[in-house]
Amino acid sequence: MKKFLLAVCLFVLFYNVKSSAQSRYRFPSAIPAQYDFNAESEYNDLVNSMGKDFTPKEASRFSEDVVAMKMNEIYTGDVYLGWTEMEDYLNAVLNKLMPDSSKGKYTIHVYPSTSTEYNAYTMPDGSIYFNVSLFAEVDNEAGLAFILGHELSHKLRRDAVSTYKKRIELKKTSKRSSESDSEKELIAAAYSRENEQTADSMAMLFCNKAGYDVRYGIGNLYKFLG
C-alpha cells in the first residue's frame, strides 16, 4: 500500500510539473522575503571561507562572481519563487541524502529552476538549482535522488573552489611554458571529469545509505549521457 501511495504522489507531481512547464510562469512583482538575501553579507562569508590558498584579490573575484550569479538566478525569474510544493519536495529528498555529519554544518538548499535545459548545478554558497525539465524526465524518486546526491557531493567537496584554484595555477604555469591552448583545455577538462566521476560515486553512496535503489540512479545517469 505504501508503494502504491508513493507512486500516486509521484504521478501527481510529474503531472503538475509538465502542466506548469507548459504555462507561462509569472514572476512576482516583489521578491518574497524567504528568497531575498544580503549580497554584501554573502560576499563576506564567501571571502572568509576561501582560506589561505587564495590571495585577497582571487578570493574577492571568485566571491563577487558567485554572488552575482545568485542574484541573477533569484532576481531575474530563473527560479520559481513560491512553488513551495516542488521546493519542499526537492529539499526533503536532499535531506534524506545528507550525511549526518554535515547536517547543521552547511546551509544547502534546492531551488526549482525555470530553465528548459536538462541540467542541475551547484553554487559554492550551497544553492542547488534543479531545472524543471530535468525533473520531468527522471523516471522515479531514486533517479531524482541520484542527481541531487551528485550535486550535494560537489558542495561538500568544494569542487567549485578547488577547480578555481587549479585554473589559477594552470594560468600561472602556462605563462612560463610553451603549452598550447588546446593542451590547457584538455587539462582543464580532465579536472572536470575527475570531479564528475567522484560526484557520481558519492551520489551512489548517498542514495544507497538513504535506502534508494542505486540501479535507478545509474540508469538515469546513462539516460542523460545518451
Keyphrases for this structure?
226 residues, mainly alpha, three-stranded mixed sheet, 9 helices, globular, disordered N terminus
Task: Give the proportion of residues in helices.
Answer: 55-70%
- The tally of beta strands, per DSSP, is 3
Q: Averaged pLDDT, please?
A: 81
Gross morphology is: globular
Strand percentage lies at 5-15%
Main beta-sheet annotation = 3 strands, mixed
How many helices? The count is 9
What string, H for helix and E for strand, traces the elements in order?
HHHHEEEHHHHH
Task: Describe, in plain words, how this protein is organized in 3D.
With 226 residues, the chain is mostly helical. It has helices at 2-22, 39-49, 56-75, 84-97, 132-137, 141-156, 159-175, 181-210, 214-225, and strands spanning 109-113, 120-122, 127-131. A three-stranded mixed sheet has the order 1-3-2. The chain is globular and about 45 Å long. It starts with a helix and ends with a helix.
Which helices and strands occur, and which strands form pairs?
Elements: H1 2-22, H2 39-49, H3 56-75, H4 84-97, E1 109-113, E2 120-122, E3 127-131, H5 132-137, H6 141-156, H7 159-175, H8 181-210, H9 214-225
Parallel strand pairs: 1-3
Antiparallel strand pairs: 2-3
Helix pairs in contact: 2-3, 4-6, 6-8, 6-9, 7-8
Short description:
It is built from nine helices and three strands. By secondary structure, the chain is mostly helical. The N terminus is likely disordered.
